[in-house]
């Protein structure tokens, strides 16, 4: 029998639907794979073996009864540990929520279950999604399946690593400053940040509410589109949810025709700090788009150079407000509650023990930026830059259909290399942050290996808000052309674990 863990999500769903394999067989194959390799990778924080098998049995029962199955029924999925899941631990990679069992499902979790997707478990992440490497997890770093001594990206490194190590064909991530796209780039997988508000944030533990966005992660563009269609859509429980139809992403992923499209290349997404091999693969991808019939247009978006600074004022400011709820009084960790400390002291002791260094750093930075006398100079100025970035995108999309760039300036760096240099770590999100600040949609897909180190490089595609289908149209065209050139998916070149 074909190794069930190597099939795409679309192939897996079709085999289950036809009766060639059962959902239980598929689930057991992936649970066995997790058992075999995750000790090396550390992609999962919690594996819900019992829940996954129960969900798989329910799918098989539906098929046996002749009930209609959805396009992803029975397909296993790895869920980032930031979405609440009833009866299953949700830690957000933090000690402050260690052992917390949510009493309810996030809207995204509900939609996955309603679509009969089999949730294998919860994946590792930078604590509260604050990081670019998954080294900030309170439960140890995740390794990149291409080289487990290197980072798998962050904050959703666990989800990307689960895909790249064939522990799951689908995963869910969240993207605040690039945390879906950046891990996708360095693991040779596909990651999509939908338009802000397109996927409900209800039940997603908040980091930066005006930036956070859940989205699909997969090994192919079509699989990402199928998952996108399941999780997107209006949710009255989320005040930021867009009340509009989901763009036709699956149809676009199946078309893959870029003839006549205008593709923008932004001058500011290059220069100092970009690895030579990353730029080489990006330039080859731009040339490939020309060969496929697209017109390439050079653009300038001057405000993009200020995006990193604006982000690291806005995101910490919102995080300092959101994380105030972790006060040791309502849920989660409680330290010092022995009758000898005041409530304020218990809160302080709990936060000291429960929050990691990066979370503390961002809380302090955000609180300072919001404080009296500094609000206008820092947070207010950052919001003005955010407006300029949005205007640059508006002008650009007046000239082109999509923008392309490298997803990350470099390939995956060694674990620990940037641990003592937060600024170097933040630069990993240089290309991804502008889209979060503007709220538009973006995708990363593999475009080759860097010649210097043989590690994956990602191509980023950016589209206007609510034009997410353009990502899939361009992405599928590039993916098909590159795989025809290589003769196989890029992940087949990854070393075996």
Mean pLDDT: 96
Question: Main sheet, how many strands, which sense, barrel?
Answer: 11 strands, mixed
Strand order of the largest sheet: 1-3-2-4-6-5-10-11-9-7-8
Overall helicity? 25-40%
- Rg, rounded, reads 21 Å
How many individual domains?
Answer: 1
The total strand number stands at 11
Proportion of residues in β-strands = 5-15%
**What's the CATH topology label?**
Amidase signature (AS) enzymes
Catalytic activity: L-glutamyl-tRNA(Gln) + L-glutamine + ATP + H2O = L-glutaminyl-tRNA(Gln) + L-glutamate + ADP + phosphate + H(+)
Family: Belongs to the amidase family. GatA subfamily.
Domain Amidase: 25-471
InterPro entries: Amidase, Amidase_CS, Amidase_dom, AS_sf, GatA
Question: How would you characterize this protein structure?
Answer:
By secondary structure, the chain is of the alpha/beta class. Helix content is 39%, strand content 12%. Strands 1-3-2-4-6-5-10-11-9-7-8 form an eleven-stranded mixed sheet, with helices on both faces. The radius of gyration is 21 Å and the shape is globular. The relative contact order is 0.14.
């Amino acid at each position: 029998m074909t190794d069930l863990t190597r099939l795409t999500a679309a192939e897996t769903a079709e085999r289950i639907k036809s009766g060639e394999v059962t959902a239980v067989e598929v689930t057991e194959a992936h649970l066995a794979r997790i058992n075999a390799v995750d000790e090396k990778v550390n992609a999962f924080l919690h594996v819900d073996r019992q829940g996954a098998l129960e969900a798989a049995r329910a799918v098989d029962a539906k098929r046996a009864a002749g009930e209609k199955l959805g396009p992803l029924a029975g397909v296993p999925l790895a869920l980032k540990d930031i979405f609440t899941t009833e009866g299953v631990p949700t830690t957000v990679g933090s000690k402050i929520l260690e052992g917390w069992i949510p009493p309810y499902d996030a809207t995204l979790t509900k939609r996955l279950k309603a679509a009969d997707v089999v949730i294998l478990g919860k994946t590792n992440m930078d604590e509260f999604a604050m990081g670019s490497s998954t080294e900030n997890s309170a439960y140890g770093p995740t390794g990149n399946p291409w080289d487990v001594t290197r980072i798998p990206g962050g904050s959703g490194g666990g989800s990307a690593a689960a895909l790249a190590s064939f522990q799951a064909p689908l995963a869910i991530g969240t993207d605040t400053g690039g945390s879906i796209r950046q891990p996708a780039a360095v693991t040779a997988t596909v990651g999509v940040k939908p338009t802000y508000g397109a996927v409900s944030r209800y039940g997603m533990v908040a980091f930066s509410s005006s930036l956070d966005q859940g989205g699909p992660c997969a090994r192919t563009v079509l699989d990402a589109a199928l998952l996108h269609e399941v999780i997107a859509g209006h949710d009255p429980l989320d005040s930021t949810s867009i009340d509009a139809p989901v763009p036709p992403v699956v149809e676009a992923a199946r078309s893959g025709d870029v003839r006549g499209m205008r593709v923008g290349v932004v001058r500011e997404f290059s220069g100092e700090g970009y690895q030579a091999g990353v730029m080489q693969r990006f330039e080859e991808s731009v040339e490939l788009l020309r060969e496929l019939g697209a017109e390439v247009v050079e653009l300038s978006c001057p405000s993009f150079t200020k995006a990193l600074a604006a982000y690291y004022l806005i995101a910490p400011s919102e995080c300092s407000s959101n994380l105030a709820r972790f006060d040791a009084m309502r849920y989660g960790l409680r330290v010092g509650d022995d009758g000898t400390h005041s409530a304020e002291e218990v809160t302080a002791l709990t936060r000291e023990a429960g929050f990691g260094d990066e979370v503390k750093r961002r809380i302090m930075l955000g609180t300072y930026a919001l404080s009296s006398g500094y609000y206008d100079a820092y947070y207010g100025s950052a919001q003005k830059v955010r407006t300029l970035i949005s205007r640059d995108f508006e002008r650009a999309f007046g000239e082109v259909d999509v923008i392309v760039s490298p997803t990350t300036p470099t390939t995956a760096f060694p674990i620990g290399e940037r641990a003592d240099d937060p600024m170097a770590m933040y630069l990993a999100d240089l290309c991804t942050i502008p889209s979060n600040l503007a709220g538009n949609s973006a995708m990363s897909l593999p475009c080759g290996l860097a010649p210097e180190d043989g590690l994956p490089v990602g191509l980023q595609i950016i589209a206007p808000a609510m034009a997410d289908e353009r990502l899939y149209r361009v992405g599928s065209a590039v993916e098909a052309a590159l795989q025809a050139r290589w003769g196989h998916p890029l992940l087949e070149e990854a070393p075996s674990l």
